[in-house]
Amino acid sequence: MHFISRNLEEYITQHSTAEPELLSELSRETHLKVLRPRMLSGHYQGRILSMISKMVRPRHILEIGTYTGYSALCLAEGLSEGGTVHTIDLNEELREIQQRYFRKGGFEGRIKTYLGDALNLLPQIEVIFDLVFIDAEKTEYEAYFEAVLKKTRPGSIIISDNVLWSGKVAEAADQKDTATEVLKAYNNKLSTDPRVETVLLPIRDGLALCRVR
Q1: From CA 6, how far away is CA 46, in angstroms rounded?
Q2: What's the predicted TM-score (pTM) here?
Q3: Strands across the sheet with 152-161, in order?
Q4: pLDDT, mean of residues 35-39
Q5: Residue 201 pLDDT more than 80?
Q6: SS3 for 63?
């Protein structure tokens, strides 16, 4: 979904920091070999995730939804000394490409991957997270949010992807469109939940940026 004109979007991308070569290589390989490459964060959103991480300087990052590892690498750029990224995904077939690029990026051992359902795995990860990125099953967003809140501290940042859902959240949804209805409810929750401060950003398919109070 493009919320601004393609020309302006290209201008914004061209006048942001260039995409690192490693991530450009990963993007190309993802588009060539992996289904649904649209799920990749991509150059512009990736630079935003990197910038947020560098501003937060997190010791521990949680990502729900690894895909091919692009966003994990972007987030890892801002890690403080000795910091770690913990990233969870259900798709075992993508582990080879993830691990290969984590090694190429020099993050082997600092990006810890988990295979399985995040809601089952999270209670087993005994870490408090400074930065969280949620980009997995949309119908589970509220459950993910509640689960990660227990793993954060005041000042932690929680980012949720795809919250504008191609603009459908601002329209009357088909009752059969479960994902849109769930995301509408999720956005309403974030805007009124006293435990967080929230701003929605019209970046790609929408990012919700929350700061834990």
Answers
A1: 18
A2: 0.96
A3: 111-115, 84-89, 60-64, 129-134, 152-161, 207-212, 196-201
A4: 89
A5: yes
A6: strand
Closest listed residue to residue 128, CA positions, set 59, 51, 50, 72 = 59
pLDDT at 176: 80
Dihedral sign (CA 6, 23, 203, 81): negative
HSE-up of residue 85 (Cα within 13 Å, Cβ side) = 28
pLDDT in tens, 126-157: 999 999 999 999 999 999 999 999 999 999 99
